[in-house]
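Feature request, filed as a ticket because there's no other form

It would be nice if the structure record came with a short human-readable summary line next to the tokens. Right now we just get the raw output. Example of a typical job, pasted below so the devs can see what we mean:
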Amino acid sequence: MSKDKEMNPFKIVQEQFDSNAEKCGLSQPTREFLREAEREIRVRIPVEMDNGNTRTFTGFRVQHSTARGPAKGGLRFAADETIDMVRGLAMMMTWKCAVVNIPLGGGKGGVICNPRELSDRETEKLCRGWVRKVYDFVGPEMDVPAPDVATNPQDMLWIMDEYDTIARSRKPGFVTGKAVGVGGSLGRMEATGFGAIYCVREALKRMNINFKDATLSIQGAGNVASYALRKFSEYGGKVVAISCWDANDKKAYTYSCEDGINPEDLFAPGTLDKFGTIDQKKAESFGWKQEDADAWLTKPVTVLMPAALGSAVHGDNVNEIDFNNVKIYAEAANTPTTPAADKVIKEKNIYLIPDFLCNAGGVTVSYFEQVQNNMNYYWPKDEVLQKLEKIMIDAFNDVADLAEKENFYPRDAAYVIAVKRVAHAVESRGWVKSS
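Raw output as currently delivered:
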């Protein structure tokens, strides 16, 4: 594994921030304040397992910024979770909410565990235990969790119920990503994947590429990737490859189809499990070809979309990209590109849609969910998606216009817009002096 791929995820995000602080004209006090989180919480959660033994899990909650509104960000369950991963993602949530201009700050949570090894009962106990440990520091006006890696709407309902039980009240806006009918919003499942494709569509327009001539290769087969595939196909494009982790083989594969992967096959019962793992026998029955893990990266496609793992594209594999054909690199995952790989993509003049813009659809509809919870009135799906599309288009064009005007790399343009908005809130509140 390259040193580049092993880079500390928090340091990657800090490095990106530092490189753009000068462009934003930030004062030194504001820079220092925004480089670190406002609050970090580390907890130990004892859980009685199904075998009667008690196992203790370590959990985190990091609140990077509350200057523009309550901290907002998912809760992740992962065996390799670290505090620096959570720190980096919390910081990215701050910029994500700011670049799409919704009144929320940035937060993120994590628990070190292997969710595939937990029963539903153990998972429920872990969710409720996490709430009990962080209760004093979260809430609808302070910090609002949501689903993330290996967590889902059911987990969010357990979290909401535990919070309500402790608070002796009903606070559906405490957590988002809930099931529809129990405080959830229609359109939430589609939001991140659809939002990414709205951005891709606008980029194709600027490049005068007909969507029906566009092809896509995706890393990932979870919620984001699967709905991105559906929307891309709906617009007339062709998805030729999709990759995912296989729980049985303990390795990743790419599944490809030159004629295009049919969304109905991907969404057919039994094709995907709740962790985004593709059933190999199902894939074979659809005529999909099984290839090596990184094969998705080498495809001669119009659009390349990492939509799964952090640091997926790094110094050792970035040059496997077919730079003669790839026109757009759309980061639907969080921090999927290491600094070394990012440098190559920039030098090759590939049109970048940066992660905290490209995948901001999820947090946008999470915000809509809070608004609907507060009103106790819920919008139809077409209205949710219409509002999402407008916000994503406006944000994309803000970034693209600034990049063209100032000759900025799109990642830098997105940072400048987001950081300036957060810095303005921090300085206007009087937390730090602007000069």
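Something like this underneath would help us a lot:
The longest helix spans residues 381-406.
The chain has two domains: 37-182, 189-358.
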